[in-house]
Fold this sequence. Notes:
By secondary structure, the protein is mainly beta. The protein has one domain (2-50). Helices cover 0% and strands 28% of the residues. The protein has strands at residues 2-3, 13-17, 23-26, 44-49. The chain is globular, with a radius of gyration of 13 Å. The site of zinc ion has 8 residues, from loops.
Amino acid sequence: MNVSPGSNVEVDGIYWCTVCKTPALFEQGKVFPACPNLCSKGHWELVLPSTNDSAAEAPR
Ligand SMILES: [Zn+2]
């Protein structure tokens, strides 16, 4: 699942650049930025989907 910079984030999770493998956390509703290392052919690949569904309901 690769997405281009400028696309909307549809799934919360940790993504990395397909070129330099720099990981970054993105949240649903945000827009993917360009890779911080400016990889011209870099895309973002989801490597670890967020699994905090239950955490959102947990009392503080
Ligand atoms: Zn990169």
